[in-house]
Amino acid sequence: MIVLFIKARLEHVADLSLPKGYTYTVTVKDSRGEDERKGVEVTSTHEEELPGSRGTANFALRWHKDSKMAAHLNVHEIEKEVKTKAKDILRSAYTAEDEGKFIGIVGFDCRGMDVTDWQPQDGFTVTSKSGAVFEDVDLSEKEWMDYDEKLGESIGIYDLEWKLAAVKL
């Protein structure tokens, strides 16, 4: 499983999350070659049949026209906290307690391809320390700021970083 880990600096933010069924924009690479596709959109809500198989996947492609097998991936949204053997932590939201640490937010189960990059977009949900909810937050610029009227303070997400790593669950 390739897991997307994020880390950010939070100002008056209780948590940062993505809704179930979020569409991730990623770069995928042929695990046996050099071919690469950028800007691929994948989501857990899309399902397609795998050619020549009884199985399904959230995304599939053939790297070459004459390939017998389609490379594919499935998106695994993390619904509860999971501690792995490698002590990586996976959870459905990045919280104020996580600040400064990489936390896994989604997994990609890949066959014949690897996810090599992620491009953050809009669609994030931010809950401030006052409980105010900000929806469809855009983190494509790696930061976001707003004003929380309940709190009477500015809130923000800064220095968004991410990494992709193979994790055994």
TrEMBL record:
Residues 33-52 are annotated as: Disordered. It comes from the Eukaryota. The keyword Zinc applies. Keywords: Metal-binding, Zinc. Residues 33-51 have a biased composition (Basic and acidic residues). GO terms for molecular function: zinc ion binding. Belongs to the UPF0587 family. This is Uncharacterized protein. It comes from Coccomyxa viridis.
